[in-house]
Amino acid sequence: MLRVVRTPEGEALLDEAGRQSGRGAYVCPEPLCVTLCLKKRLLEKSLKCEIPEQVKDRLKELAHVSESDLAAADGALMDDVKSTLSLARRAGELVIGQDRVLDALSAGQLLLVLLTHDHSETLARSLASREADTRVLTEVSRLELGHLLGLRQAQIVALPAKSGFAKKLMELLPEEGGNAVE
To answer: Which of 1, 133, 134, 146 has the fewest CB atoms nearer than 10 Å to its CB?
Structure first.
């Protein structure tokens, strides 16, 4: 197991000897485990501090993470996102379609809004004027999202911001600028 520790001073370090004092978190040394851990920001959440790039790079080096591992992790993350959206639809929590999402936002509902990468600019401007928490799924098209939801196509879906499904999606999606959001 690989150990990352937050020292009493609040600094995150890779503890290769396993003896550093502080709050520790363990990561399986398999390439896919390390990759998913870093993409989901699990160390940051567990240790409640930022993990320096040099620590992330050393973890990747120790686990022998390759480009194919990074691609596999991206695919696994998007599968998790799609699965969560599908479950939210079945649970009746997913708001689907431009009119329904915009009406819900106008009614004052706090929503996590997800757009496909091929969404319209008019829709993006409309959402920006409402200051909605919006994420763009850069690997999902209108047709893919529609197919996932049993529709012909869909460019926008939303979830109540405080729902368990929204929280799960926020855990799965990396910070702004990552592979899954723009």
So the answer is: 1
